[in-house]
C-alpha cells in the first residue's frame, strides 16, 4: 500500500470506523426483555453474551497475560476467537484499599519475585508497567472498549488471590474479608468509575457465594442492596446475581422473587463444570449422568428462564488438551444444553498461564483458550466445537425466517445439512444447517418440502423420503439424556442416528444407552434445537433439486 493511497483513504477509513463504532455503541446499554438480554436499538434486539473470563484478581492484582502480549493484541485475539465479551474479574480491595490500589505494576510483580514477568511486561506493555494497578485495570478496560468487546466486571473475591474455598474468608457476607459495607462501597466505586464506558455492560456483584455462613435471608438483604447501589451509580449496567453454594443454587428464587426499585436489568448467573459432579462423568454412564445433571441444573437455576430472567452461565470450561475423559463427556452434554436454551455464557478461561497462582510462578492453565505464551489458541478444535454457541439461534429482533429446528451434533460442533437431494445428509457448519419441522407425530421434514428423514437400516446412510407414514420416519429422543434420535427400520430394528468416518449421517444400533460406563455415546448425540435464524448456502439448491421439488409438490398436491 503506497503512502499516497493511505493518505487519501485515511479520512474515509476513519469515517467508516467511526460510523461502525457509533452504530455499535449506539445500541448500548443493554437491558432485559423476559429471558433475553437486548440492546437499545429499535425494539431491542437480542444480544447474546459469548464471553471469556479474563482473570485480574490474583495476588499480583493485574490482568493476566500482559507480560506475554500487548493489551490491544490480546483484546483483538479475543474478538478473533469469536467472543464478543469478557467477564473481567477483580478483587474488591482493588477498589476499597488504597494500599492495594496504589502499588505500581512493577512493584507488585517485584514483591512476588516475578523478575521474568517484569521483563516481559516491560517489553509488551511499557506504557502500563509503571502505573498503579488501579490504573492498569482501567487501561485493560479501555483496550477492550476500543476493540468493542463488551465487559462484565466481576467481583471475584475480596483479598487478592485464587478463588474459592469454604474457609478462605471471602465466601459470604460477614466472613473475615467480606464486610458487606465495604463491599457496597466498592461496588459503588466500580460502577461510578465505568459509568461512561459504554462497553461495560454488566456487573457480577459477587462470585460464588459459599461457606458456613451462607444464608438465604442475608442473601436477599445484601444482594438487593448491592443491586441498588450499582444502579444508583450506573443505571446502564445489568446487575448479575450469583446464587449460593459456589453459584450452583438459585432454587430459592422459586418461592421468593428478588425485589428491586428498577426493572429490566436483573440477570442471574450460574456455574457448571465437569468437576462440579466430581468424577461422575467418567465413572458413570454418560447418558444417565447427563440426564441427571441437566435435571438438577434446571431445578437449581435453569427454571429462571421460564420465570422470565436471563441466565448467564458465567463459568464453564474444560481441560483443552482433550485428555480428561470426565471433562470431554461433560462438554458434549453442556454444549447440547447451552445450544438448546441458547444461553448467554462466559467460558473459563482466557489465560494460557498466570504470573503467579497458588504459590506457583508462571503456572500453565490447561483450561485456557490461549496457550502458555498467549500467542495462539491452545486448541483450535475446541474453538470449532464451541463456535455454534457463540452465535444466537433466536431472540427478539433476530428472526429472519419462520421458527424451525436445526439438528446439532455436539461432539463435532456441527449441524445436519444437505448439499442437494442426490448427496447424502452430512454434518456442516451450523450457520448453514438444514431447517427442519418436527411434527407432533415425530416426523422430521425439511422445511418447505415434503421430504422426511428416514432410517434405511443398520450401518446405512439416513435418507430422505416422500412417504412419511411408516415407522422408519418417526424419530424419538431417547435415553436418559434424550440425546439419541431413534427410529425403526421397516423390519422393526431399532436404530439411532449416528455419523460415519466422513461425517455422513447414518443409522446404527443404539450405543451406551444405559449402564455401560466405559463407552462414550457422543457420536450418536444429536439435539433438535429451535432457531429463527435464516440459513445460507443450503437454500440455493441445485436445479435438479428444484425440479424434483416441484414434481413432488404436484404429486402430493
Ligand atoms: C489494605 O491492604 C493492605 C495490604 O494488603 C493490608 O495490609 C491492610 O490490612 C488492608 N486494609 C484493610 C482495611 O483491609
Ligand atoms: C439466616 O439469617 C437470619 C437473619 O440473621 C437468621 O434469623 C436465621 O436464623 C439464619 N438462618 C440460618 C439457617 O442460619
Ligand atoms: C452515570 O451516567 C448517566 C448517563 O450515562 C448519568 O445520567 C448519571 O448521572 C451518571 N451517574 C453518576 C453517578 O455519575
Ligand atoms: C484438542 O482437543 C482434542 C479433543 O477435543 C484432542 O484430541 C487434541 O489432542 C487436542 N489438541 C491439542 C493440541 O491439545
Ligand atoms: C422450542 O420451541 C417450542 C415450540 O415453540 C417450545 O415448546 C420449546 O419449549 C422450545 N424449546 C426450548 C428449549 O426453548
Ligand atoms: C410400527 O411400530 C409399532 C410398534 O412400535 C407396531 O405396532 C407397528 O406394527 C409398526 N408399523 C409398521 C407399519 O411396521
Ligand atoms: C432386519 O434387517 C436387518 C438387515 O438390514 C437384519 O440384520 C435384522 O436381523 C432384521 N431384523 C428382523 C427383526 O428381521
UniProtKB/TrEMBL annotation:
It comes from Tagetes erecta (African marigold). This is Glycoside hydrolase family 5 domain-containing protein. Belongs to the glycosyl hydrolase 5 (cellulase A) family. It comes from the Eukaryota. Transmembrane segments: none annotated. Residues 1-27 form the signal peptide. Pfam families: Cellulase. Keywords: Glycosidase, Hydrolase, Signal. The lineage of its organism: Eukaryota, Viridiplantae, Streptophyta, Embryophyta, Tracheophyta. GO terms for biological process: polysaccharide catabolic process. Residues 72-350 form the Glycoside hydrolase family domain. InterPro entries: GH (IPR017853), Glyco_hydro_5 (IPR001547), Ricin_B-like_lectins (IPR035992).
Amino acid at each position: 500500500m503506497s503512502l499516497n493511497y493511505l493518505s487519501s483513504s485515511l479520512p474515509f477509513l476513519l469515517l467508516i470506523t467511526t460510523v461502525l463504532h457509533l452504530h455499535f455503541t449506539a445500541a448500548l446499554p443493554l437491558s432485559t426483555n423476559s429471558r433475553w438480554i437486548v440492546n437499545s436499538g429499535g425494539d431491542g434486539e437480542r444480544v447474546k453474551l459469548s464471553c471469556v473470563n479474563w482473570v485480574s484478581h490474583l495476588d499480583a492484582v493485574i490482568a493476566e497475560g500482559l507480560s506475554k502480549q500487548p493489551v490491544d493484541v490480546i483484546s483483538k485475539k479475543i474478538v478473533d476467537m469469536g467472543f464478543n465479551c469478557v467477564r473481567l474479574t477483580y478483587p474488591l480491595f482493588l477498589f476499597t484499599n488504597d494500599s492495594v490500589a496504589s502499588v505500581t505494576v512493577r512493584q507488585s510483580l517485584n514483591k512476588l519475585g516475578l523478575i521474568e514477568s517484569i521483563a516481559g511486561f516491560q517489553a509488551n506493555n511499557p506504557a502500563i508497567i509503571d502505573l498503579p494497578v488501579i490504573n492498569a485495570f482501567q487501561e485493560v478496560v479501555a483496550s477492550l472498549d476500543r476493540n468493542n468487546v463488551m465487559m462484565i466486571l466481576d467481583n471475584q473475591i475480596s483479598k487478592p488471590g485464587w478463588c474459592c474455598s469454604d474457609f478462605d474468608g471471602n465466601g459470604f457476607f460477614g466472613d473475615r474479608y467480606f464486610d458487606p459495607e465495604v463491599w457496597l462501597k466498592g461496588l459503588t466505586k466500580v460502577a461510578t468509575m465505568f459509568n461512561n464506558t459504554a462497553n461495560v455492560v454488566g456487573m457480577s456483584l459477587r462470585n460464588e457465594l459459599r461457606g458456613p455462613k451462607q444464608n438465604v435471608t442475608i442473601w436477599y438483604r445484601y444482594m438487593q442492596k448491592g443491586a441498588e447501589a450499582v444502579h444508583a451509580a450506573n443505571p446502564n449496567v445489568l446487575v448479575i446475581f450469583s446464587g449460593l453454594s459456589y453459584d450452583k443454587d438459585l432454587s430459592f428464587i422459586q418461592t421468593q422473587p428478588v425485589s428491586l426499585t428498577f426493572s429490566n436489568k436483573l440477570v442471574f448467573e450460574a456455574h457448571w463444570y465437569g468437576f462440579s459432579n466430581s468424577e461422575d462423568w467418567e465413572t458413570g454412564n454418560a447418558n444417565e449422568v447427563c440426564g441427571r445433571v441437566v435435571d438438577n441444573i434446571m431445578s437449581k437455576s435453569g427454571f429462571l428462564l421460564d420465570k422470565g430472567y436471563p441466565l448467564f452461565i458465567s463459568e464453564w470450561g474444560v481441560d483443552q488438551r482433550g485428555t480428561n475423559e470426565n471433562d470431554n463427556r461433560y462438554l458434549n452434554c453442556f454444549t447440547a444444553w447451552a445450544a438448546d436454551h441458547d444461553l448467554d455464557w462466559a467460558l473459563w478461561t482466557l489465560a494460557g498461564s498466570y504470573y503467579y497462582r497458588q504459590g506457583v510462578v508462571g503456572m500453565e492453565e490447561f483450561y485456557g483458550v490461549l496457550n502458555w505464551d498467549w500467542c495462539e489458541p491452545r486448541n483450535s478444535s475446541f474453538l470449532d466445537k464451541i463456535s455454534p454457541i457463540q452465535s444466537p439461534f433466536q431472540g427478539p429482533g433476530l428472526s429472519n425466517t419462520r421458527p424451525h429446528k436445526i439438528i446439532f451434533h455436539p461432539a463435532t460442533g456441527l449441524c445436519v445439512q444437505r448439499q442437494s437431494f442426490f448427496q447424502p445428509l452430512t454434518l456442516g457448519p451450523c450457520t448453514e444447517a438444514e431447517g427442519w419441522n418436527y411434527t407432533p407425530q415425530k416426523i422430521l421434514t425439511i422445511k418447505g418440502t415434503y421430504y422426511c428423514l428416514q432410517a434405511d437400516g443398520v450401518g446405512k446412510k439416513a435418507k430422505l423420503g416422500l412417504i412419511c407414514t411408516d415407522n422408519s420416519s418417526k424419530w424419538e429422543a431417547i435415553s436418559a439424556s434424550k440425546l439419541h434420535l431413534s427410529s425403526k427400520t421397516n423390519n422393526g430394528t431399532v436404530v439411532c442416528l449416528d455419523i460415519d468416518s466422513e461425517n455422513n449421517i447414518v443409522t446404527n444400533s443404539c450405543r451406551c444407552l444405559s449402564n455401560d460406563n466405559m463407552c462414550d455415546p457422543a457420536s450418536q448425540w444429536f439435539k433438535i434445537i429451535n432457531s429463527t435464524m435464516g440459513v445460507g448456502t443450503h437454500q440455493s439448491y441445485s436445479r435438479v433439486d428444484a425440479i424434483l421439488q416441484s414434481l413432488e409438490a404436484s404429486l402430493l398436491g
